[in-house]
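note to self: dont lose this again. the chain is below, predicted strucutre after it. 303 aa total, dont forget to put it in the shared folder this time
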Amino acid sequence: MNPETALVPPRRMNTTGNGSIVAGEFVMTSQNFQHIADMLYADAGIELPQSKAMLVYSRLAKRLRELQFSSFNEYCDFAAGPNGAAERRKMLSALTTNVTSFFRENHHFEHLKTVALPPLLQSAQKGDRVRIWSAGCSTGQEPYSIALTLLGMEPKAAQLDIRILATDIDPQVLKFGARGVYEEAALSAVPPELKRTYFSPADTESAQEWRVGEVPRKLISFMELNLNGHWPMKGRFDIIFCRNVVIYFSTQTQQAIWSNMAQKLMPGSWLYIGHSERVSGAATPDFTSAGITTYRYKAKATS
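---
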């Protein structure tokens, strides 16, 4: 998600005369910042170092104006109060940056097409189920890229028992993804034949927007999910994409997520992670590196 821009650009300072750690129209003390960081960690497991104070100020100042608060003291009291759950969700949306694109880190989609999917499609054509999870799907380009890869290999994929689960903690980006309307520039990495087949001009005021077609949509289900909370899915997955998500979590939380994902993978299945991420912790022996940020899950030996 793009940063909210404050009307008065803040200037980073240690402290100001009124005790604010950022100069601007609102007072934000170090205690206010820590309160916000604690709420973000409690709700989502995301760590927020004090070096991000200017970012927090600039992205939340708009919320203070909309709520007609005069300081971050008032805002924190409201967000932490009994009626603050909805505001904490808006806070989360404002403070998490969703950077994504179609076919981002394309080497994963090449591996998907040439290695991971061919045997799974053969199984699906015999009636077997195939399940893929896009964890931290943001505004939907990742799960749609997976669906387009599938359809490029098997145009009847949506008629088989193949489904893609797309999850994110932010309900706003999920709405955007489910809507499936993107600007012309966002589709630059989509192969022309797939664009012609599976996109159509959107019925909007802008002539430069395209809507994802019914067939790719049929493959995908969007669902709100906190990776740091309960995972309600009962079945296991053949492929998981979890890219550029865990970098926001503490080391302990990252290791817990990898261990939980190991429990959600079929033997011999695949895990794709972000370019700056590594599988770590107790789950490490369960995975074998199979290329750049690509892992294969190994079944544990049974006694």
